[in-house]
C-alpha cells in the first residue's frame, strides 16, 4: 500500500470516528453533519506537522462560519484588494511551507518509529528453523 493510499485510509477512519461520535447510536442526519465534520477535519492542525490541511492547500487561514455571523475583528478588517495582493505574495511561500510541513512529518514519523522499535526484540532465524505462517498474513490459499 502506497503512502498516499495509507493517508487516505487514516483520514477516512478519522472522519468515520468523528461521525459516529456526532451521530450517536441513531446514525440519522449524517448528510447534515458530514459537511461540518469535513470542515472541522480540514481546519484542525495535524499533530505530525502542526499545519492544517486547508492552509497547506490554499495557503490562507480558515474562517469558521460563526466568525462571519458574529463579524470578528478579522472579518471587519478584511480588505479584498489587500487580500488579493497578500495571496499572491503568499503563493511564493506556499511551496516552502509545504516542504517544511513534509520535513516535520518525516521527523515525527521517525520519532514514532524509534519509539515502537525500541520495544521490539530482534530475532534472526537460522536455516531449517520451523516457523508458523498464517495464511491471513500472506494472503496465501489453502
TrEMBL record:
Gene3D superfamilies: Ribonuclease H-like superfamily/Ribonuclease H. It comes from the Eukaryota. This is Reverse transcriptase domain-containing protein. SUPFAM superfamilies: Ribonuclease H-like. Keywords: Nucleotidyltransferase, RNA-directed DNA polymerase, Transferase. InterPro entries: RNaseH-like_sf, RNaseH_sf. It comes from Tanacetum coccineum. The lineage of its organism: Eukaryota, Viridiplantae, Streptophyta, Embryophyta, Tracheophyta. GO terms for molecular function: RNA-directed DNA polymerase activity.
